[in-house]
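Input sequence (614 aa), recorded before submission:
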Amino acid sequence: MSSFCRKLVRKKYVDPSSITDTKLSRCLTTLDLTALGIGSTLGAGIYVVAGQVAKDTAGPAVILSFLIAALASVLAGLCYAEFGARVPKTGSAYVYSYVTVGEFMAFVIGWNLILEYVIGTASVARAWSSYFDSLIHKSIQTFFRDNMPMSIGGLSPYPDFFAFGITLLLTCILTLGVKESSRFNNIFTGVNLLVVLYVVICGFIKADLSNWSLPKPPLNSTTDKAGDGGFLPFGFSGVMSGAATCFYAFVGFDCIATTGEEVKNPQKAIPISIVLSLFGCFLAYFGVSAAITLMSPYYLLDHDAPLPEVFSKVGWDVARYIIAVGAVCGLSTSLLGAMFPLPRVIYAMASDGLLFQFLGTVSERFKTPVAGTLLSGLFAGFMAMMFDLKELVDMMSIGTLLAYTLVAVSVLLLRYRVNSFNQYRADDRDSLILNDTSSVGYLQQMFNHKLRTPTHLSETVSFWNITIICVLIIAESLILIFLEDFISSGVWWSIALVSVVGLLIFILVYSTWLQPQNQDLVNFKVPLLPILPVISVFVNVYLMLKLSSATWIRFGVWMFLGFLIYFSYSLHHSVESQHDEHIPLSPRSDQDESSDDNIFSEDEESDHVLWNRK
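Predicted structure, token format:
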């Protein structure tokens, strides 16, 4: 059992001397990455989400909802940026968790990223098809409904061959090479941004500041859920509820992190492009939401097509056609952004032996993982053609939020290590075996602020602090969700429970803040550690637990399939399992470095660890 558990937590070895070696083509620039991040994040949703949140949830204060959502997304973005600078490898959150947390959690993250990108690709392809169909008076839908109807629960009412064809076309573009895909994305992202700029400028020309201070509207069929008027018609709770919806509007920037082996200067380009893309998306969402709420009373916005309708009301019907062009370009870049990371995650997992080896084959001609790209494209295209994806889209959120959480936790764990994974084998499994493990020494170190550099004891204290903080965050989130009515009603015991758990989290965060961090030279580091990553973990866990039980059941089914693959194939074919056969298990201490030259069998390793403990 001990040997089995060690296999689950073995970590990926990162050799600093070959960290930039790759079979893929390094041809992307910072501009390419920024355009990829903006294109995948700023899809057609910008033409819909801002108006829907303003009308139903936040009113003119939707600009505050986007601000809060952007700040929450930036927390995750900063964590991705640091790892992008440390580990410029393909795989995003999968490889980041592999080098820090261990193989099993890395597989869980990678398996969920595959689900996230497959459903994301399928849903955007379906949206592209529906939008194009609406421009030609729903001719495609009418034809297939009449000739090939499907009346099976959970499936689409008709097979959407157009969505399937779009996905296959994009798959071919991705197969031809990353530079060709990047050019396609840059052009369409540029057009989309020009349309957004047009909307913002024209909107402010027709702005009326009185629309941000409207009185409470008289009740009728249009305004029966319009709130109390003013800038905050639904109160601060409406702003926060809108922020939860707006948070998902910023999902997509993480595709930048999957390009680590295709960027010319990844240590600098990845952090810069992540920050720039999130900032650019925030400006776009902020500008559009401000423009439409200044042009029209928030409660009169159209729910399904707020932008075209609001311009029609002010007599600018030509804007309909310009917005249509922007929406098509936005959907195209969103489709590329959803599809682009999928074969790269599959390639990274296959290269590490956690998925079938043929999926990691790279074409000598195109320098792309052709097998993984074609297989993932066929899978996503089939789902777009056959399934009604409305009920499955929430499953994307679990994969995204879980990845965000693991990356934030990985940053915390890594920064308090004695050595970074770039300086020694990442699966130095006894880095937490200490010479002094007494409870007195442990408690003293928890609030010791005199150390300048990490020790094994401070590393252990930080590790358990972070672990317990994560458990308490889950407990606090559950309390806030299930006791929401009691807390809002001011019931003393519910408030006391929240306060006690919050106080424990604060104490452990303070203790972690006192521990010394390693001083590795990295192009970018998350500021205000451990506060910002802990806040990011809390936001992500809370949003995950707010998802429906049906979503978690579907998630469980997907994970069951993943576990079958991991325990029957990945566990035995992992590349790191070959390294395990040649790694000593001695504690890393200055006086014992000579033991690194010894090679032990698995049984001898256990005896060696026990001897060093004594």
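Checked by second reader. The CA atoms of residues 218 and 224 lie 8 Å apart.
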